[in-house]
Structure formats: C-alpha cells, structure tokens
Design goal:
Blueprint: H1 2-7, H2 10-18, E1 21-28, H3 30-34, H4 38-48, E2 51-58, H5 62-68, H6 78-85, E3 90-98, H7 100-108, H8 121-125, E4 134-136, H9 140-150, H10 164-167
Antiparallel strand pairs: 1-3, 1-4, 2-3
Bound molecules: adenosine-5'-diphosphate.
Amino acid sequence: HACKSTHGNFLPNLVASLEQVEQTYIMVKPDGVQRGLVGEIISRFERKGFKLTGLKLFQCPKELAEEHYKDLRAKPFYPKLIDYITSGPVVSMAWEGVGVVASARKLIGSTDPLQAETGTIRGDLAVQTGRNVVHGSDSPENGRRETALWFKEVELCQWTPAQASWLRE
Ligand code: ADP
C-alpha cells in the first residue's frame, strides 16, 4: 500500500519488465502430420495468443533426432523414439511470449495421452505415449537450446503482431 501511494505506477511497470519473454520449440511429430492435424495444432497456439517466429515442414535426420532426445538415450524406448521422429516429416515451430514454455506444456497435456486432460492436444487427439502427436520444450533453457538446434538464425522472424496491444496491457 505504501509503495503504491509513494511510487504510483512504478511498481507494476517494474514487475512487467521483469517478466521474461521466452522461446519454446514446438513440433508436430510425424503421426500428427500423417493424420492431418497440423492446422489443428498450430491453431491452438495461435488462438492462445503466442507469437510464431519460425515454421517449417522438415524431414528430421537421425543425428538431429539423437541430439534433440540425448537426455533420453538410456531409456528402453529410445531406439523406437528415434525411429518414430524420423519416420516422416515433422512441422517445426518456434513460439515466443511471456510464460510460453509452461503454457505450451499445458496446451499439449501429459506425455501419456490417456492421462492427458480433455481440452489438451494430446488429451483430445491421441491415445498412446509412443504416438503423442506433438513435442514442447520443458524449460526456458531447453526452449532456447531446441529452437537453436532446429532452426537457423535466418529462419526465425522478429515481428510485431498487429494484435499485440489487444493481448497484453
Ligand atoms: P514429453 O514429450 O511429454 O516432454 P518425455 O520428455 O518424457 O515427454 O519423452 C519424450 C518423448 O518420448 C515422449 O513425448 C514420447 O514420444 C516418448 N516416450 C516417452 N516415454 C515413452 C514410453 N514409455 N514409451 C514410448 N515412448 C515414450
């Protein structure tokens, strides 16, 4: 209360400037592409209000899949996971916004689609962990790492959406 009366708008502005704009790497996996779910999945992020900064249809080489999933190398499902991700084209996307990493994970839903909440992408559109249609970075650090791994600098666009001032005050 004392802060508000002494500093006026200073405190809220400071809080807003501390909110970090994050990047996340979202990928429609080969099953999502084959099942014709690309538009549906892009729409969910677009309608939420995040900013698309990169987009491409891409046949993932084995080496890239291995680098992307290097933390899962010891898992029993790892070989099948690499086969799955390289089995057909994926749609690679970079999305940007305050809180985008955690929010995208919520939009995507739990790893196991049968456990994922209705209303999430996996909850609505998939039935098995090994075919869970979409990937999303699990931390801001991995969001930056994966975006840099899947996109060249020139493939990412910095732009200001016309709706920006209608999404955040
Ligand atoms: P998430 O993609 O939800 O972040 P993980 O990082 O744990 O989940 O796993 C990466 C991907 O590996 C999953 O999305 C899924 O495609 C695959 N995967 C994870 N666990 C299994 C499993 N038990 N069997 C088959 N595939 C799995």
